[in-house]
Design a protein that fits this description.
CATH architecture of chain B: Orthogonal Bundle
Shape of chain A: globular
Helix content of chain B: over 70%
Strand content of chain B: under 5%
CATH architecture of one domain in chain A: 3-Layer(aba) Sandwich
Structural class of chain B: mainly alpha
Oligomer: heterodimer
Bound molecules: adenosine-5'-diphosphate, magnesium ion
CATH topology of chain B: ABC transporter involved in vitamin B12 uptake, BtuC
Strand order of the largest sheet of chain B: 1-2
Largest sheet of chain B: 2 strands, antiparallel
Number of helices of chain B: 15
Distance between the termini of chain B: 24 Å
Radius of gyration of chain B: 21 Å
CATH topology of one domain in chain A: Rossmann fold
Distance between the termini of chain A: 25 Å
CATH class of chain B: Mainly Alpha
CATH superfamily of one domain in chain A: P-loop containing nucleotide triphosphate hydrolases
Order of helices and strands of chain B: HHHHHHHHEEHHHHHHH
Shape of chain B: globular
């Protein structure tokens, strides 16, 4: 057991009290059979800025993300969004609430086209009497315009996603998230399959999204990226959030130490 | 794809596009789309050469009419297979539908009500399958195998194995009369195919069905109601079983309590030939329709050449495995 009970109080987690809080995660627990993926995780996300989550593989980052989006229903604890306890039963509830997610596995339908994926569950329709028909041309047109804006160029909007490279797939998933987010976007290791140039362009896109007033929560393994992008960083280990700090107050080395457990205190 | 020259093309972008095109023409997808039409054409040419009686208006019209039930069942099976599932109870559903239709007829109910009873029976069997696949989460193969036996038994119990004669002119009309040389029953089947094509490619439900079949986890993560979509897919499949029951009753003039397993085989075979991915997520409507017509033509052609009907299952089996092998690389 890597239990450190004093960690929470020892951190000066600059997030409390200041600014508007978009999301508050309170003692969230999630079990998979006998595996405890989250053992009471706590963190806050401030409105209109980038918050990062770092942590080793298996720390529970993706599980926490999925609890936030309604894909998993937590076994304990509360998630408070915009001041109200959220009861997301499925991801559609979160999407309805303007929260979009780029999952680590991207959640793309491989055999469907790029435009179909971008409009998945958000298709444009035309009403004809009691029926609703897809506006295929319009969706293709809009998807094309959106993708042209992107860092990674996608060969054609009508291609099936399985033809795309890892970077292109990631770009499609990010484009989808950005296009539908109304308030918040959650990105789980969004630049993992990207090269340096593409990563820089995705980071620019994230910055633009924040400038437009959106809240961003990003899971990343890349400490440089965390330093570049985020205002607040939380560290997860073994199913718990073991610490948090304003990003300006921490060095890369300290972040590494916090993730591995070598450092208990930040700043 | 070709008219999109509004924005200046970067070199990298263009090469990506050309590669995409080259890939599209080079591979598996072509196999999937081309198998049924090419094989159908080949069979028509071969049999026309082998027998002067094959390529005659009367024979072609008769064979097309005989394709009706295989076409309708292939349409139903397409929706189960597109969901990465299967409906083994399809042929049994036809039997049960024709039995309930016969029972309604015996009650003296109007013919249109009897027809609706048969279709409703198909919807109910489909709903039963869909609930167990979608919510109870038992593998489709097991659920529909159970349903196959259950429905087959029900058909025998309800009918006590005895067919009900239904010599109604309005009913036999659709299996005997033609419009411009094409029998009404196959026209009905084609009409249904057109509607289902619109459902699959021009409605949200169609897209969602393919998304669930492709990757249920991804579909769920995007907020789709996976179980509900599976239920709808299986209900559509069952509905086609009910429609086929009506068409069969019309063709024979009586109910048919015993399930004809040949129908199930042919439906699945037509779907495979039609290039629908057995892993789900990719389907067409025209493919399975042509596949069903192809199998019927093959069977009739062999009969015409004097080959014993005993060979027909053998040939269908070979065709299915050959087609599935051809498309194996997909996914
Ligand atoms: N669906 C699942 N079923 C069983 N165990 C799971 C599942 N998802 C995650 N886990 C387990 O929960 C822990 C946390 O996983 P995850 O949240 O994916 O970590 P991270 O994203 O930080 O790498 C791991 O031990 C993992 O094996
Ligand atoms: Mg993860």
């Amino acid at each position: 057991m890597t239990d450190n009970t004093r960690s929470r109080s020892s951190f000066d987690n600059g997030a409390t009290g200041a600014g508007d809080i978009k999301v508050e995660v309170r003692d969230v627990e999630k079990l998979f059979g006998s595996i405890v993926a989250l053992r009471g995780a706590n963190l806050t996300v401030r409105k209109g800025e980038v918050t990062a989550i770092v942590g080793d593989n298996g720390a529970g980052k993706s599980t926490l993300v999925k609890c936030l989006t309604g894909l998993y229903v937590p076994d304990g604890g509360e998630i408070i969004i915009d001041g109200e306890v959220a009861h997301f039963r499925n991801p559609d509830d979160a999407r309805e609430g303007g929260i979009e997610t780029v999952y680590q596995d991207l959640a793309l339908s491989d055999q469907l086209s790029v435009w179909q994926n971008m409009f998945m569950s958000r298709e444009l329709v035309r009403r004809v009497g009691p029926f609703k028909f897809l506006r295929r041309k319009e969706m293709k047109k809009q998807a094309k315009t959106l993708v042209e804006d992107l860092a990674v160029t996608v060969p054609s909007i009508t291609n099936s996603v399985k033809r795309l490279s890892g970077g292109q797939r990631q770009a499609v998933a990010i484009a989808r998230g950005v296009m539908w987010a109304k308030g918040m976007i959650i990105l789980d290791e969004p630049t993992a399959a990207l090269g340096l140039r593409e990563t820089a362009q995705v980071e620019a896109l994230i910055k633009r999204t924040v400038d437009q007033g959106q809240t961003v929560l990003i899971v990343s393994h890349n400490f440089e990226q965390v330093k570049r992008l985020s205002s607040q960083v939380w560290v997860m280990r073994a199913g718990q959030v073991v610490g948090g700090t304003r990003t300006v107050d921490v060095t890369n080395e300290e972040l590494v130490g916090m993730v591995t457990g070598a450092i208990q205190l930040a700043g | 794809m070709t008219a999109e020259t509004r924005t200046p093309l970067l070199p990298a972008r263009r090469s990506g596009r050309v590669k995409g095109l080259a890939k599209r023409f080079g591979t598996e997808e072509v196999w999937a789309k081309a198998t049924a039409p090419v094989a159908l054409l080949a069979i028509v040419i071969l049999f026309s050469i082998a027998s002067p009686r094959f390529f005659t208006a009367a024979n072609l019209s008769g064979m097309l009419a005989d394709s009706t039930i295989p076409v309708v069942l292939a349409l139903g099976a397409t929706f189960a297979v597109a969901l990465a599932g299967i409906d083994l109870s399809l042929a049994a559903t036809v039997a049960l539908g024709s039995v309930t239709m016969g029972l309604a007829y015996q009650q003296g109910w109007p013919l249109i009500v009897c027809v609706l009873v048969a279709i409703a029976t198909g919807v109910a069997v489909g709903a039963f399958n869909g609930v167990f696949v979608g919510w109870v989460r038992i593998p489709d193969f097991i659920v529909t195998l159970g349903t196959l036996s259950l429905v087959m038994g029900l058909a025998l119990i309800l009918s006590t194995g005895v067919p009900v004669q239904m010599r109604e002119p309005a009913l036999t009309f659709i299996s005997t009369q033609s419009l411009f040389g094409i029998r009404y029953n196959i026209l009905i089947a084609i009409g249904i195919a057109v509607i289902l094509h619109v459902v699959l490619f021009h409605t949200r439900f169609g897209t969602h069905l393919l998304a669930v079949g492709d990757n249920a986890d991804a579909a769920k993560a995007m907020g789709l109601k996976v179980a509900r979509i599976k239920l709808a897919g299986y209900m559509l499949c069952g509905t086609m079983g009910g429609v086929a029951a009506v068409l069969l009753t019309s063709y024979i003039g009586s109910s048919q309590p015993a399930a004809n397993t040949d129908y199930l085989l042919k439906a699945i075979a037509a779907v495979v030939l039609g290039g629908v991915s057995l892993f789900g997520g990719r389907a067409t409507i025209i493919g399975p329709v042509l596949g069903a017509i192809l199998l019927t033509f093959l069977q009739s052609g062999l009969t015409l050449l004097g080959v014993s009907a005993f060979y027909s299952p053998l040939v269908i089996g070979i065709v299915v495995i050959a087609a599935a092998t051809l498309m194996r690389g997909r996914k």
